[in-house]
Amino acid sequence: RTINNGVTNQISPIFKEELSASIIRHKENEYNDFETRPLLTNRRSTRGPGLSAVDLNGDLFDELIMGSSKGHRIEYASSNKNKNLLSQTFTWGDSKKLIRDTLSLIPFINNENKMNLIGVQSNYEDGLSVGNSLIQITKKTSAAIQSSVASGVGPIAMADIDKDGDLDLFVGRYANHNDNYLNLSSELYFNTDGLFNLAAANNNFKKIGPVSGAVFSDIDNDGDSDLLLARQWTYPAILINHKGVFTDRSEKWMMSNYHGMWNGISTGDFNNDGLMDIIATNIGRNCKYNQFIKDEIWMHVSDYNSDGLVEGVETVFDPYIKKRVPIRDRRNLAKVMPWVLGMYQSYKAFSKAGIDSLIEPLGNEPEVLKLNHLDTSVFINNGNSFSEIPLPAECQFTTAFGCSVADFNGDGNEDIFLAQNFFDVDSETSRYDAGLGQLVLGDGKGGFKAISGKQSGIGVFGQSRGSVASDFNGDGRVDIATTQNNDSIKLYFNQTAHPGIRVILKGKNSNHLCVGATIMLESDGVKGPKREIRIGGGYLSQDSLTQIFPSNDKEAKFHVKWNDSESDIYSIPNNAKTIIISQTDGLRVAN
Questions:
Q1: pLDDT tops 50 at residue 77
Q2: Model-level pTM greater than 0.85?
Q3: 390 near 375, Cβ under 8 Å?
């Protein structure tokens, strides 16, 4: 929106920062990953926190809930009575301090129809089986779902995988205390009368690698939830659901060639064809790897000095000596390859050394992981395969984590917000700090335009992690919030989009939150993008379950496909601002 003041045209930014959100602040505990893992290029211990937008108290407005560190409490911020400000913080779990880092929190309605949270607790730093990996939290209690496993637990997501009417649970693991690359397994839990039991058919998740992001989405449009995983040093995994059993179909869907450092993953209908497309966040091109990406970066992984810690040696192709050579210097390599100093007693000799000679004393060949794609990307769903569309250059200036999909400007097309930056890198790597939080507006045809910080009003200078899209103040516009590692939450209220209509779906049986349902707005005889109701997604986060749609057409209709595949069409009542559509009770206005 442009304001003409008679002298000059002044741009009114889309968003305005709401400073009261800074009352929620993440506090990171100091831990030096590089001391015990000298070849790490970035810390694994500062990957959080995530963020969730959840209506905890049933007043139809979301609260902001942030993951927290060991020794701190789970806090959330709630709106005050006029719905303009986040007025205060509260604690859940009986205000107890956490004994582990809790990166992700997602909503879950228990058998008594009460809102709970499910959280994951990580023990990456010390690797000790102390505490619980999975916890179920109410306002006054917290209880174990699963006892501790010696690994870093990160993304979690829920869906009715086996179509029995309740929600099952995926738990992703991003690192182990002694292995960040190879022996990393994730887990699937089936819900039986409110109790989560490890799935018998869990083999597809064994040694699946470091998982940073997870989302359930029906990408093959067959009525059940498939699972998409963002992983490090490999391709995003496309796991197709068939009667509750997942099979890796990444190659079939033409995703197996995109080996990246994928952080977050979500889906949206970016070309308005009723098929779910993918947005996945990556390291970006503004990094030391970009000049070598044509010939790939290889990671040679092994326990080089038999100390029980698996390390990775990064190599690139040197066109002058026609060899793959290590990126790290002689001094740092010697910390895990003590024989290097004896083999190459000068830096001049070391400059001619290829990786083959360096690993020769090892005996066994290391496993090789590859990196060939740096862009944060959209992948368009063609029905049985994906086609990659790089996002604009502005999205590649720094690494991205959170990715929230919503119609931020109210034009009926899906847009994307990217949470950016990462500072905790090794001494030979420049930190990733060129982002402010990037808004990209979609055109409904699969194309995107990057919006400057001046136009968007967004300016996050810290290390963003999780992000959420939600209409926090109930004005019919989609707002943005993001966490910062070791810093305050940033919240931006949308002030220029045309107000839309707020839609809340209510399911039946044990799926009260209506997870797995889809909704589309038909306006002037044309259907807009399909939306899915999901729990978990992006990066360690939970976008609002309340959907915001344009409200320009009085004859518009909503097409709802419920999780059990039943379908209904609903007309929009006049002057409705908030409507609740129940599978059992129909539509009612809740302005």
A1: yes
A2: yes
A3: yes
